[in-house]
Amino acid sequence: MDISRLKSLRAGNKSSGDENPEEICTLLEAVKKKKKTLANIDEQILNTVDSEGITDEIIETDEYYLE
């Protein structure tokens, strides 16, 4: 890649970091709230289904939350 192309890519990536910190905090709180809601729904599902075969579903859910 030539130097002008690399400089252009760098400038584009650098300028994309001009987000408002308050907006970032708001988005982070929304993601945390959504994650908590999903955890509550998972708990409700676990309380209503058979315990047979649930181990695999628990592992898959845990792996999702760890990503």
Q: Report the uncertain regions.
A: none
Strand content: under 5%
* Mean pLDDT over all positions: 80
Shape: elongated
How many separate domains make up the residues?
A: 1
The major β-sheet equals: none
Termini separation: 33 Å
**What structural category characterises the helix and strand content?**
mainly alpha
Describe this structure in words.
- With 67 residues, this protein is mostly helical.
- It has one domain (19-66).
- The chain has helices at 3-15, 21-48, 54-66.
- The protein is elongated and about 60 Å long.
- Residues 1-20 are annotated as: Disordered.
Describe what is shown at a glance.
Residues 1-20 are annotated as: Disordered. This protein is an all-alpha fold.
How are the secondary structure elements laid out?
Blueprint: H1 3-15, H2 21-48, H3 54-66
Region (Disordered): 1-20
Fill in the keyword field for this structure:
81% helix, mainly alpha, 67 residues, single chain
